[in-house]
Amino acid sequence: MENREEVLKMANWCLGCKLKPCSKGCPMNTNIPEFINEIKNENYKKAYNILTENNIFTHICSIICPQEDQCEGSCIRGIKQTPTNIGKLEKFVNEWAEENKLKVQLKVEKEIDNKVAIIGSGPAGLECAYELRKKGFKVTVFEKDEDFGGILKYGIPDFRLEKDKIDNIINMLKENGVEFKNNKKLGKDIHIDELKKEFDAVFIGIGAENPSLYSIGDFNNVYDSDTFLRAYNNKKFLKNLGKTVVIGGGNVAMDCSRAAVKMGAEEVSILYRRDREHMPAREVELEDAISDGVKPVFLTRVIKGIGENRKLEKLECIKTKIVDNKAIDIVNSEFTYDADTVVFAIGLRPNKDLLEKEGIALNDWGLIDVKEDGKTNLDGVFAGGDVMESKSTVCRALGSSRKAAFSIMKKLLCVVIGIIFFAM
After folding, report:
1. Residue 107 belongs to a domain
2. Which among 313, 344, 375 is the end of a domain?
3. One domain for residues 328 and 370
4. DSSP 182
5. Do residues 216 and 196 both lie within one domain?
6. Is 106 within a domain?
7. Whether this model's pTM surpasses 0.85
8. CA angle 85, 89, 93 (to 5 degrees)
9. Cα–Cα distance, 210 to 386 (Å, whole number)
10. Where are the beta strands (DSSP E) in 237-310?
11. pLDDT, tens digit, 9 for 90 and up, residues 115-155
12. Confidence (pLDDT) at 414
């Protein structure tokens, strides 16, 4: 936990802007000046209440959110000086609350007969479940995996996010009447048309589950980021990684590289086709990876693998340069790079075939085509998170699913009011 004197200094750096640009930069519209003002008054409990009443994922967001692109990126101080360190202040308040055994609360306002099915138990699904249950709706969450939590459980390693943070939220929802069903995969164990017969509304929050890959040849020890991180998070460490190369430049690539180190890789490199300036990974994530011994290699594109009998030995690569923000190959700059294992961390996409078979309309980017309020083309079916937004963050997923939850409430409560009206 940060030193309280230092925390007070960080809090007093905040100007308390009336227009709250930082709050507008936050996908959950957290009242940032208000919670920071309570830190200035050393009223940490009230600061915690402000945060959790708006966002039950506040502790998680304080750890993994790219504040520099969201709230801090909108800070007035940041125009000519250093922005207020909102992320550290939020983390401090949550750590203080944890030390003082304060927990997120869910108070059900009034029981409502309407039932809503949530498909997916990642941040989008859990946020939607929370908002609906708080209003009294009967909520059932369906998850394809054995355990609940989605990307927070399987996709983000424990060295970056302790799993009790997500377990606490799931347990709180269970204790307040949200039903959870595991091993229920959309398209196999459950179908949207069947759920619509039993439930009054359906929310899809299954995230982007198909890895982006390209062929480097037929070799063993070539993994996608999802498989690789699941192996680490499930404590089923992959063996004989040897010299491991991670292809990609985002936060997932950083996670994969650090997981490779912890799974015993001989050495780990990140090969990225752009330079550091154009690398999407957060500075702190790259620094942590380097501290763990990971070697970043910029302006390098992997062309293909080299080896015999499916055993990878080297990678054929080519140097690149940035022209008009694009990575362009440099002619006659090919070289080889030693590698026993390759991990692709170049993005995930929604399962296009699955969604189309379920009757969901997609846009030109292969994402669920939703309206501003989260509505899909199917009546009573809504969506949020990575399944409808490219390169989303946890906080953006929460924001989109909250909008969908409010839209579901509006639709179902209007139906109830209409029934009462016509019955009079």
Report:
1. no
2. 344
3. no
4. -
5. no
6. no
7. yes
8. 175
9. 11
10. 243-247, 267-271, 295-297, 300-308
11. 999 999 999 999 999 999 999 999 999 999 999 999 999 99
12. 79
For residue 64, what is the domain's CATH number? 1.10.1060.10
Q: Give the pair of three-digit tokens for residue 416.
A: 């109830």
Type of residue numbered 276: R
Range of the domain at 278: 211-344
Return the CATH number at 140. 3.50.50.60
pLDDT (tens digit per residue) in 178-234: 999 999 999 999 999 999 999 999 999 999 989 999 999 999 999 999 999 999 999
Distance CA 251, CA 206 (A): 20
